[in-house]
């Protein structure tokens, strides 16, 4: 009996001891203290495992697998159906930082809802977690940069204000115990192309003024005002040191000067670039030590950090330095509540029903409308009448839903493209549609798919499997008789019963040539695609974006060609596949002119596309290189098409879709109106139509300068700001930063300030009357610029405040704004810092950055 009692007591006290909370398990302690306790219990190998973007689980301590890399640039990406908002460059055109906050509050709700659902199913994979690598606050210094569409434009202040809204919307209220998500300011720093050289580039031409007045302000603002929890270091070197191992950028400026105490994550593969591309480190051992000692805590892809234990054993770095990084990253995981029970974390209650809910769909439409930027409207041709007898909608982007999603995008449940948007405004029989031309190609592919057959049937045999390896019994086999054009966007299937993820497909046919000559195979794929001809692989691609590819083949009359295309959906990417082949013939516009001869007006929807501009893309077409542009004009085939329409006497309205500025001098002559529509998201087509037909009065203003030609720009690889953006441009642009028309007119009156002489630390009150002098209600965007006088090397002006002002027709709004002392902060060359100095300043205010549109008040600071 005594023995049994002893055993029972031992079991009782043993279970009591195991039930006692360890410090890291106590949610009442601070996140940092919990992290320190947890890290003290880890082995070095376990610590290193936590420092990679796919962080390994440590089951003995209750640490789950965690993915640091997720995306939420303008919607939670790589997730299946979500709400897809406009690309950030379009959101910047709204000059509406409050609306942008609401957008990203919705994005973070959808991210939490999706993550909550994944956890119920025990799912953990890349892109599905709560650390989102957004926003991109690099300065869009040159329109040739393919990733400029991800940014908020060329101005440091506008970028800062938009960035603050993004971060606060994503991370949740500052006073909350738990963060909704972790946001990330990227790419730190001095990064904006070229894409083709970013892994080797050494930026050495940045002056102290450019660094502090242009390239760093947005990062500093997000660190000190928005409390951003992550900063991503960039690929290139800055002054000989890779950014992810740059002791000045990461140590002195970010952590010491700005007081950043949270996480630094590397861009993907940036640490292995130290020895593979920059050759600043000899191998992974030295690169990993250099990165961590400089302040990088998490490595994305490549995993040089696997060599950290060897670096410790060789004395290159101490384990206490590793502890510093792991405490930082585990602190943030505690901040998310990811280590606590769900009942303690309010964000775990967000239901899946919020995803693409009606309020979020409305928000996507509202912000898309605000992005629309009217650049030209001769004789007030816009808005159009809905009773117009015939309207022709033509152009390569008119019927392209995928284009509207931009890049780094989520998958929309549904997309309203521009053709559909216009069709919804008019009656049956009023619309003529024709694609008219390709984005860049001045030839037409005369398809020969109809001349192919297999097993006695015309066209292609398409076979689908619900796995990525063409294994087991196929789901379905069907015959295709036209060009392949398939997508999983909008939750579509490639065929009945086929998954939208984790599937493969094979397309087979036989072509017998009747004549000798060149045929061209055209392929676009998001995922893995391999083209075989007569059992020989002639092309292979594997990409997370749909990229146009052209493969020529010489054929001989009478010879048979066995054609096989193999496709695999990869990772969490949206699947897209386009395939055609045939003879190329020169494009002429005679047939188009005849087709639209009865149209009262032609809406040409063109521009470029995320298929052509983006991140490090293997696109080599005239005017494009590696995702960047080598020419900023509209592709010639589109220019020629609009010129032909003009010569035929047509009224032409040009809807330009692009993520960057287009030099469109000929278009200002050949078109009656120009609407810059950006990449406007899932409701972009509705927003365009609402503006064209007057259901919404446009209010967008350019967040970038539209140059006249490439000659107005310095060399693309030159990072000096001289000659760039509205702040340093030489000559007059085509359309200036801040420019945008409406269907009404405004008068900005004479402004008043409380006093003309102030102290360095004294705020200034500014007020000005804004009158709507037109016949429609509308919204003006008041812009306030500041110029420091007697500063010959300074900018001609720089934006320091803005405000959207809705004013009813015939009414006046007295706008009052408080200008903080930071409004007058500029670079002081005396000791290379930013500060307010005594002297004379001009406050310039108006409706764009064009000096002709600005009025001035002189201020003296004592």
UniProtKB/TrEMBL annotation:
GO biological process, one term: xylan catabolic process
GO MF, any single term: xylan 1,4-beta-xylosidase activity
Gene3D superfamilies from the UniProt entry: Glycoside hydrolase family 3 C-terminal domain, Glycoside hydrolase, family 3, N-terminal domain, Immunoglobulins, Toxin - Anthrax Protective Antigen,domain 1
UniProt signal peptide: 1-19
Source organism, top-level taxon: Bacteria
Annotated PA14 domain residues: 455-597
A Pfam family that the UniProt record links to this protein: PA14
Keywords: Hydrolase, Signal
Family: Belongs to the glycosyl hydrolase 3 family.
Entry-linked PANTHER family: BETA-D-XYLOSIDASE 5-RELATED (PTHR42721:SF3), SUGAR HYDROLASE-RELATED (PTHR42721)
The protein, known as: Beta-glucosidase
Lineage: Bacteria, Pseudomonadati, Bacteroidota, Sphingobacteriia, Sphingobacteriales
């Amino acid at each position: 009996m005594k023995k049994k009692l002893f055993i029972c007591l031992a079991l009782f006290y043993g279970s009591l001891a195991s039930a006692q909370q360890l410090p890291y398990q106590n949610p009442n302690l601070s996140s940092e203290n919990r992290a320190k306790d947890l890290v003290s219990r880890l082995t070095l190998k376990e610590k290193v495992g936590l420092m990679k973007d796919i962080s390994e689980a440590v089951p003995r301590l209750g640490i789950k697998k965690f993915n640091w890399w997720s995306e939420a640039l303008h919607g939670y990406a790589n997730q299946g159906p979500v709400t897809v908002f406009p690309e950030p460059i379009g959101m910047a055109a709204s000059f509406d930082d409050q609306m942008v906050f609401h957008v990203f509050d919705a994005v973070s709700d959808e991210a939490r809802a999706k993550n909550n659902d994944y956890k119920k199913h025990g799912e953990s994979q890349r892109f599905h977690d709560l650390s989102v690598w957004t926003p991109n606050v690099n300065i869009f210094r040159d329109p040739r940069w393919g990733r400029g569409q991800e940014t908020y434009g060329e101005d440091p202040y506008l970028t800062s204000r938009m960035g603050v809204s993004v971060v606060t919307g994503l991370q949740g209220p500052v006073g909350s115990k738990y963060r909704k998500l972790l946001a990330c300011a990227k790419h730190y720093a001095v990064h904006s192309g070229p894409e083709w050289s970013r892994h080797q580039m050494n930026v050495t031409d940045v002056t102290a003024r450019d660094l502090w007045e242009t390239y760093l302000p947005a990062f500093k603002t997000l660190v000190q005002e928005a409390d951003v929890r992550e900063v991503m270091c960039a690929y290139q070197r800055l002054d000989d040191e890779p950014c992810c191992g740059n002791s000045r950028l990461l140590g002195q400026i970010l952590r010491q000067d700005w007081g950043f105490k949270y996480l630094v994550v590397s861009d993907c593969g940036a640490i292995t670039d130290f020895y593979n591309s920059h050759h600043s480190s000899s191998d992974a051992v030295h690169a990993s030590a250099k990165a961590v000692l400089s302040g990088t805590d998490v490595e994305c892809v490549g995993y040089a950090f696997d060599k950290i234990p060897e670096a410790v054993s060789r004395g290159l770095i101490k384990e206490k330095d590793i502890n510093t990084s792991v405490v930082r990253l585990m602190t943030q995981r505690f901040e998310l509540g990811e280590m606590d029970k769900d009942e303690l974390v309010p964000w775990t209650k967000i239901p899946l029903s919020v995803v693409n809910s009606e309020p979020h769909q409305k928000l996507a439409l509202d912000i898309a409308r605000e992005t629309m930027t009217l650049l030209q409207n001769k004789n007030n041709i816009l808005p159009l009448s809905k009773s117009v007898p015939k309207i022709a909608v033509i152009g390569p982007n008119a019927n392209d839903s995928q284009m509207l999603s931009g890049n780094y995008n989520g998958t929309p449940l549904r997309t309203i493209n521009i053709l559909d948007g216009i069709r919804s405004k008019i009656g049956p029989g009023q619309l003529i549609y024709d694609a008219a031309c390709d984005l860049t190609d001045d030839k037409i592919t005369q398809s020969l798919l109809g001349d192919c057959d297999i097993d006695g049937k015309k066209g292609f045999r398409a076979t689908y499997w619900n796995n990525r390896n063409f294994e087991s019994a196929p789901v379905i086999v069907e015959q295709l008789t036209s060009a392949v054009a398939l997508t999983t966007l909008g939750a579509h299937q490639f065929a009945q019963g086929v998954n939208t993820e984790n599937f493969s497909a094979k397309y087979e046919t036989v072509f017998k040539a009747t004549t000798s000559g060149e045929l061209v195979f055209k392929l676009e794929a998001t995922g893995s695609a391999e083209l075989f001809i007569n059992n020989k692989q002639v092309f292979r691609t594997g990409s997370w974006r749909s990229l146009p590819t052209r493969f020529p083949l010489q054929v001989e009359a009478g010879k048979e060609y066995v054609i096989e295309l193999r496709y695999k959906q990869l990772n969490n990417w949206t699947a897209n596949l386009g395939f055609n082949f045939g003879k190329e013939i020169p494009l002429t516009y005679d047939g188009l002119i005849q087709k639209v001869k009865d149209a009262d007006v032609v809406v040409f929807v063109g521009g470029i596309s995320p298929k052509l501009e983006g991140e490090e893309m293997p696109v080599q077409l005239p005017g494009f290189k590696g995702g960047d542009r080598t020419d900023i004009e509209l592709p010639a085939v589109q220019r020629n098409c609009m010129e032909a329409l003009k010569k035929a006497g047509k009224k032409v309205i040009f809807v330009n879709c692009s993520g960057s500025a287009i030099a469109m001098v000929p278009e200002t002559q050949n078109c009656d109106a120009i609407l810059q529509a950006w990449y406007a998201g899932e409701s972009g087509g509705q927003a365009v139509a609402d503006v064209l037909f007057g259901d919404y009065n446009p209010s967008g203003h350019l967040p970038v300068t539209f140059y006249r030609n490439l000659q107005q720009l310095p060399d693309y690889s030159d990072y000096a700001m001289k000659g760039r953006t509205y702040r340093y441009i030489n000559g007059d642009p085509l359309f200036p930063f801040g420019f945008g028309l409406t269907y009404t007119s405004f008068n900005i009156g004479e402004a008043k300030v409380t006093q003309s002489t102030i102290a360095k630390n004294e705020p200034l009150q500014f007020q000005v009357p804004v009158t709507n002098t037109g016949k429609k209600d509308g919204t003006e965007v008041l812009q306030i610029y500041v110029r420091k006088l007697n500063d010959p090397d300074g900018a001609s002006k720089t934006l320091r405040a803005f405000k959207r002002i809705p004013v009813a027709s015939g009414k006046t709004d007295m706008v009052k704004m408080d200008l903080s002392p930071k409004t007058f902060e500029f670079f002081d060359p005396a000791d290379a810092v930013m500060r307010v100095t005594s002297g004379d300043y001009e406050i310039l205010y108006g409706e764009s950055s064009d000096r002709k549109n600005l009025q001035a008040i002189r201020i003296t600071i004592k």
